[in-house]
Amino acid sequence: IEYTFVVENTGNVTLTDIVLDDPELNITGGPIPSLAPGESDSSTFSATYTVTQEDVDNGEHVSPPSSGEGTAPDGSKYETESHDGSGNSGDPTVIPVEKRAALAITKTGEWLDANGNGMADVGEVIEYTFVVQNTGNVALTNVSPVDSGPVFGGKTGAGTLSAFSPGPVA
Fold first, then answer.
1. What is the pLDDT of residue 146?
2. Average per-residue pLDDT in the chain?
3. At 167, is the pLDDT very low, low, confident or very high (cuts 50, 70, 90)?
4. So what's the pLDDT on residue 42?
5. Secondary structure string (H, E, C) spanning the chain
């Protein structure tokens, strides 16, 4: 996630040496040397954040407010917290993260030639293997193969994965 910061002087005096800080992000840029009343700066500060699996599973990343500080002409410090565009100082910034659940199931069968005659005979067994892969981007729970054919008779398979992370088959 690329963050940009718009710093606006909403007061009635010029502020100098304006810096930003964030409890989560490593903000680059700044300080802004001077910002007159009514002026804004949208190019000095930026930050990036690497999305985590928790963010994807939640469908969003919630970033706590950043803080800013500037110096007034009389030497006093002015501090404030960021907002997310709503105008309410201290609001977190919420970035939606697309959630996409998906599974891929590969079913293979191997005929076991019990008598070694090279032909399928009544009563011989076909052994089925299921490879289940989480091809989405969210962790899944309680994943079980279901087969409508004779393997499970339309019922759930023998095993259930209680926690199933996205990614390649191990």
1. 72
2. 88
3. confident
4. 96
5. CEEECCEECCCCCCEEEEEEECCCCCCECCCEEEECCCCEECCCCEEECCCCHHHHHHCEEEECCCEEEEECCCCCEEEEECCCCCCCCCCCEEEECCCCCCEEEEEEEEEECCCCCCCCCCCCEEEEEEEEEECCCCCECCECCECCCCCCCCCECCCCECCECCCCCC
